[in-house]
TrEMBL record:
This is Lamin tail-like protein. PROSITE patterns: LTD. Gene3D superfamilies: Lamin Tail domain. Keywords: Signal. Residues 1-21 form the signal peptide. Residues 23-142 form the LTD domain. The keyword Metal-binding does not apply. It holds the Pfam family LTD.
Length: 150
């Protein structure tokens, strides 16, 4: 669940209005959210790119307009950061952010790493705008079943 959604849900009345007013409109109204994380794909952890690419984060644009993600980041708690280049996600669509190497498409992008990013036992993914505002987070504290819906 995203940070904005958690904070607003826990506040009432004018306090909630203050929090919302303090956040940039793009962050408070972002339609792009974390959807799923596959942090421990089945099989043995190896240096094979085909296995590393099976670890990924999925974003979903739940809105009705295309969103430009240039400069947005997906990061973990240990300073692994993936920064989107010139990339847009269309309304109602998903993008898969694979840990390994590959050629970016309109639905799949690659961090080009040689080893895994997401910890199997516990970790947290943060999605931030190009201004650095956190728009969503997703975390887990177990290693089964190897994925989490956000």
């Amino acid at each position: 669940m995203g940070m904005t959604r958690t904070v607003v849900a826990g506040l009432a009345g004018a306090a909630a209005l203050t929090v919302m007013a303090a956040e940039p409109a793009s962050a408070a109204s972002s339609t792009v959210k974390l959807y799923k994380v596959v942090y421990d794909p089945s099989g043995t952890d190896t240096h094979a790119n085909s296995q590393i690419d099976r670890e990924y984060v999925v974003l979903k644009n739940g809105g009705k307009k295309t969103v430009k993600l240039a400069g947005w980041t997906v990061r973990d708690t240990k300073k692994h950061v993936y920064t989107f280049g010139s990339f847009s996600i269309k309304a109602g669509k998903y993008v898969y952010i694979h840990t390994g190497r590959g050629t970016d498409t309109s639905t799949n992008v690659y961090q080009n790493r040689g080893w895994y990013v997401w910890n199997n036992t516990a970790d947290k993914v943060s999605l931030r705008t190009s201004a650095g505002t956190t728009v969503d987070t997703c975390q887990w504290k177990h290693n089964s079943p190897g994925h989490v819906s956000c």
